[in-house]
Amino acid sequence: MHYKDFDSIPKKVHSFQIQGHYQSFLPISVGLIHHTFLITTDTNTYILQKINHSIFSDVPILMNTIQSITKHLAHNKEYALRIPLIVPTHNGNLFLYDTDAYWRIYTYVGDTISSIPITEDICYKTAKAYASFSYCLSGFEMSHIIPSIPYFHSATKRMEALEKVVQKNAYHRVEKVKKELEILYQLSSLFQKIDNLIKINALPLRIMHNDTKINNILFDTVTNEPIAVVDLDTVMPGYIIYDVGDIIRTSCIDYPEDHTVLKDIRIDTKRIDFIKKGYREGWKNTLSSIEEECIDISGAYMALLMAVRFLTDYIDGNVYYKIHYEEHNLDRARNQLFLCEQMSFINT
After folding, report:
1. Rounded to two decimals, what is the model's pTM?
2. Are 96 and 241 in contact (CB under 8 A)?
3. In the predicted model, is pLDDT for residue 268 greater than 70?
4. pLDDT (tens digit, 9 = 90+) per residue, 175-198?
5. By C-alpha distance, which of 254, 269, 256, 258 is closest to 299?
6. DSSP code per residue over 31-79
7. Helices and strands (H, E) in the chain, number of each type
């Protein structure tokens, strides 16, 4: 992000219907997609984001979907969590388009944290919160959601994208990742199993969050209870294997997805058990028998899917994810391939 964007932030903030007089902004280093800032006025605090338009190409549809979802949850008496609200501009728009960039502001949920030590209890609470989120959207008309990223978790589409960049090999990196590609192809039968269930409509299509990392939950700073589910950009129709699998993938180990000393990675099966318990309870034990069976392989499925995405981005010149060094995505891919292998071994 350019410094000129920093200089113009006060002007952008004043375009929105904020309360109080603007005082300051602070960049927040969270997430791999958007640029996020904490905005302070003399009476309130807000979250400002510069939306990654290269990923979310239709910002009006994105913001209208988020607005519809948050309104639905606000009127659902079973949904007990708080809901960060979109702050409109003075023109009544849900976002600001300024100098070839899109900006938005959310209300700030105070006395919360998103970075929290992972324990069995936190795993249980996280899974239950995400499951409750989707359960309470069961009555939302699915046809009203236009996917912000079509085929986001589709293994078929992700593999097709990988094959395209491999064939193109624009950055001459395929030779370097032959070993990773070989491991990936060996594990890809996992995709086939789920794809076959989807093709015969054996898995119910539901509204999913699709990015269920622990840091997309805000926790009370005192009680560690979940307060809000955030980052709703990828809320779209999908399958429970996506959400519960991503919770398992990101919560069952003590290292981030770019950790390079792979022998350090140990899967905590007790955490997985607590995730399964919380997720089932959040859905009020209404999941189908096939969904229940798929939970067991969901973590491995999502780890492999992320390996495909990271490897695709690396071969394609690192155009999607934020990186801190040239081989960052390759390290992420290696990490997720190893995690998938370990999970597959446990499942068998």
Report:
1. 0.92
2. no
3. yes
4. 999 999 999 999 999 999 999 999
5. 269
6. -SSSEEEEEEESS-EEEEEEE-TTTS--HHHHHHHHHHHHHHHHT-TT-
7. 11, 11
